[in-house]
Amino acid sequence: DADVANVAASKLTGALPAISGASLTGLTSSQMPTGSVIQVVSELNNSALVWTDGSQQTAVTKSITVQEGNKVLLNFFGALSNESMGTASWSSMAFLYLYQDSSKIRELEHDGDLWVNSSNNHRVYNVSGSHLTGALSAGTYAFSLQVDAYQANSFAVNRSATHPSSMILMEIQV
Question: Could you give the CA distance from residue 174 to residue 115 in angstroms, rounded to a whole number?
Fold first, then answer.
C-alpha cells in the first residue's frame, strides 16, 4: 500500500468504507469559535396547573451546567389563560418573570387575546421570547418562567397536553 497524499474526488469510485464520526475526537468546547453552541437542553411542561389565590407560579423550569465565561441563550414559551374573567381589565392580566436561580432577570407583562365560548370569557396568553445572559461563572444555573396574576382569579398554566410551556437553554461559547 503506497501512501497517497492527494486524490481527486472524481477518482474515488466503487464501494467506499463508511466514515464514522467516532474518529473525530480531541476537539474540546474551548477550541470552538466564539458564538458556537456548546450544548442544548430543553424542557416541555404539559402538566396543567390552575390556581385562584393570585400567587406566583412556575410555568416551566430547566437547569444547565456551563463552563467559565460562557453565556446562556434562553428561548421560552408560556401557555396561560385566565379562566374566569367577565370583561377585559387589569384584573385579567398576568405578569411574567424570567428567573436565573432566585434572581429575576426579566419582566414581561401581557394582556392576552379575549376568547369567548358559550359559558365564559377567557383571556388566552401565549407568551414567547428570548434572553441572552451575560458571561457566567462555571456552574449549574436554574432558569424558570414564572407567572403572577394581577389579581386573584382562576389562572391556568399549560392549559392541556396540547398547550404546554417550554424552555430551551443553549450554552454559547464566548
Answer: 44
CA separation for the pair 16, 12 (Å, rounded): 8
> Is residue 164 exposed (0-12), middle (13-18) or buried (19+ Cβ within 10 Å)?
buried
Identify whether the C-beta of residue 154 lies closer than 8 Å to the C-beta of residue 161: no
- The conformation of residue 151, written as its DSSP 8-state character, comes to S
Among residues 64, 83, 86, the alpha carbon closest in space to that of 158 is found at 83
Q: Judging by beta carbons within 10 Å of its beta carbon (0-12, 13-18, 19+), is residue 114 exposed, middle or buried?
A: middle
Q: Which residue type does 29 have?
A: S
Report whether 103 contacts 167 (CB < 8 A).
no
Convert the pLDDT of each residue in 13-68 to its tens digit: 777 677 666 655 666 777 788 999 999 999 999 888 877 777 888 889 999 999 99
Q: How far is CA 128 from the centre of its chain?
A: 9
Q: What is the 3-state secondary structure (H, E, C) of 139-161?
A: EEEEEEEEEEECCCCCEEECCCC
- Where residue 54 falls (left for φ over 0; alpha for ψ -120 to 50; beta otherwise) is left
pTM score, whole prediction: 0.75
Q: Determine contact, residues 165/59, Cβ cutoff 8 Å.
A: yes
Contact of 37 with 170, CB cutoff 8 Å:
yes
Please list the residues that pair with 65 across neighbouring strands: 140
